[in-house]
Input
Amino acid sequence: VSTDAPLGEFEVVVLMAALHLGRDAYGSAILEEIAARTGRRVSRGSVYITLDRLEDKGLLESKLEGASPSRAGRPKRLFRVTAGGVKAVRHSLNVLARMHKGLEPLLGDF
Amino acid sequence: MTPALWPIVERALVRYLPERQRASTLGDLKEDYDKQRASGGRWRAELWLFRESVSLVVAYRTARHRALVARRPRADVHAVAGELRRAVRSLRRAPWYTVAVSCVLALGMALTLSIVAIVDGVLFAPVPYAGTDRLFVVNAGWSRLSFERPPMEPVSAEQVDVWRAALPGARFTTFYPNAADIGPAESAANLHVDASFFDVLGVRPWVGGFGPDHFATPTIPAPAIAPAILTHRFWVSRFGADPAIVGRTFLNERGRGIRVVGVLPANFVVPDVQASAREADWAVHILSPFVLPKPLDKSIATARVFRTLVRLPPAMTIQEAAARLTDASSRLAAATPASPPTLAVTDDVRIRRGVPDMVRLSSVREALMFNVRQMSRVVFWATCALMLLACLNVTSLAVARVQDRWRDLAIHRSLGANRQHLARLLAIENFVVVAIGTGVGLAIARPSVAAIAHWLPASMSLIKTPAIDLRVLIFAIITAICAVAVITLGSIHAASGANVRDVLAAGGRTTPRQRFLIVGAQVAVALVLTVGGALVVGSLVKISNVDVGLRKEGTALIRIFMPGATPSAIEELLSEVRRQPGVLQAGGIDRGLLQRSSNGSVFDRPPGVVQGAESIAVTTGYFATAGLRATRGRLPTDAEVASGAPVLVVSERVAAEYWSDGTALGQSLTTDGRAFTVVGIVPDVRYVMLDSAPTGAIYWPMAANSKAMLDNVVVSLDPAAGSLGQVAGWMRERCPTCRISRVESLSDAMNWSIRHRLVPTWLLSAFGIAALVIVGVGLLGLVAMTTARRTREMGVRIALGATPIRIVRQVAGEQTAAVVVGLFAGGLIAAWAVRFVKAYLYEISTYDVWAWSAAIVVLLATAFIAALIPSIRAGRLDPVQALKTE
Output
């Protein structure tokens, strides 16, 4: 899968949530992080599908660890943003910043 | 406490979640579910769990479906390409089958597409005006007459004004056909239209158009140079699609003519069936404006020349509009004095001369397609029957081929191919032959459409030009898909029993019931088409044997309009015509000959007589030219005719109907108070058209009627000494003010008068012949393939002492029952279906014994020969070679 393809808005949001969470980024935590920061409820299905896609693109890595009784003995899938992921997020934000430039009187500061 | 939903959700999600993500996702869900229960209570948590699990299932199912769809096409394209290659290889191994099937389909497709290209312009193509659901033709009629013919009866300006007043919210447009000069001795059919014409139709000229100044001044008397918009067809055919045409002027030798101000769109249809009927290419050439002067002279106001369309306002129903128009018309009719009672014409004619008192609104399509809709429907359904026959035929061949490949198919099945795989295999093979047939059919259809279009009757107005266009291509594709479906269904049915056990047990014997049904159905459909063809051909034979009543050899007609000519000027012109090289005789009459028109009579009928007659004013030389001789009494002398003496000659029908006691000679008839004496009786002549009964004729001298106008010059020619073209050319030079429109031999005029019969006759007989060919090829191929498969069996029979004749009888006889049952079923269907060709029959019953017998005999002979040829081959088998055959 090519990592050059431009990221969608939701993909950027998921990657940034994972960056915020650092070593504790796993499915439920990312869902909560997005809800807390954006104030909007996102569907669990779309988050998991997006995580899979970003991993296929090489922008995320995952590993299984931390099985516990509270999870019925099932492990957590912890995600880490790769260097490519960071670069892709930076690129997307740069694009937005360039588009935003000159629109400050209309849109306010970024 | 054990959660209620969790175990169910867990089991369900195990099915839907991908294995890689399953454990961690379920773990996340369980963790969050417990949090929900702790914070929001059990029921809230259950609802939350349900919602989250649905979200997960939907997301993963959608993702999986997208991934499959993204992957599928490439795989399928490769598979289909491979199967196509296999199908082509398989068909190349059976060249006779491929050629026979492709030929049958090509013939069926070519005929079907040619017909569809033409009837599309009648039955299916949309009328090219805007909002046709509110646009109607205003048909005027008389409450005392039936309302069937003709549509768009011309009405007066006075009548149109009354209608406008009766429907204030509606928009009317009126127009009338005429002719305009566009050069020396060159005129074009012209439709005069009013200022609202384009608005009411909702169309715009393609280039240019009329401006308000074109309708600013009255066009009576006509301006020397009229602004004109050309039809697209005329712009292309007459002016070579000249891009600088707008602004050019075309004048006759007297400086009168047209100035081109625009060109109509290519798909424009003149909304006037009567105007369309005038021109061989079913379209007027130019449109020019008309404006009536105000106040309107009474003679102009009451002249019935206008045809009218109305666009109703949205709130008004057709019934309401028709009722209000009828009411207005009947009030106008009541206020108008009736025709003079002394006028000696039939009641119908007298009523028709009065003001119409009824109105019916009909859709534009109904009015435009009035003459041809029924014929188009018959031809279209006959075409569908032919295509069905072709499909049945190909199905029978395909079934026979499947049975030939029984062993192959059985092996396919034993190797794991299911019904779906076999169906796909057969469908792709059938697709290839149908595609070949359709391609060849399309290639043949192109020239055949042009040929049929050339012979269409002049009265056949079409919404679009006949052509193999996108609509016809779409029809071809749909037909081809249906053909593949029909043929494949038959093949699948035959192939479904193919298994190894049957092959080993029965050696792949045929399924007689299926073959019986297909052969029977083919014969039935073919009989319906053949009977239709035989009936119309029988009619045409009868018509061609009809005696028109005039001498045919060397007789020719020149239609002429001599404005303001006196009887003596007419006689002078004719005497000069007689001196032209090659002219043996010449005479003139005041009516059209074989032009499907009837003028009625100006003479009073004897008391108690109801039959009408035609009064025909003749010049000197007419009787001699036409070959009319007196059967009783005498013909008037040239001196009597030239001087307008009060003498009459009547035809035998008039003599018998007016004076049934046989005392016609010496009787007298009156017109305008003058009495004319009958001096002779001549045979009846079919003046109106060849296929209608002769009308009774009353001949009187043209010189006796100061208003008589010469309409046709009849000449008797010696072709060795001069030609008709030379005579007409001389007349144009001799009389520059005359308009000479039709120059033709009497035989051509006779053919023209029955031209409306020729197209259905040719088409239906072509269908009959095509049906015979298809059945012939089909039976031939079927019997040939069946016998080829049974070569070994035949060999055993011959080895055991069966004679060749017995083998032939057996093979050919196997088809007899199917053919007989097919004939019986087809006979029943044909007995019902012949009602649709009744309108095209002339003096022949729909159950004519000769036509039916001919159809059955020809069909039986075709089937017999088709079955006999392969049977004879089977009878000649060498048993030793046959037994070696696999």
Chain B has a mean pLDDT of 82. The interface with chain A takes residues 18, 21, 23-32, 34, 52, 55-60, 63 of chain B (CB under 8 Å). The longest strand of chain B covers residues 171-183.
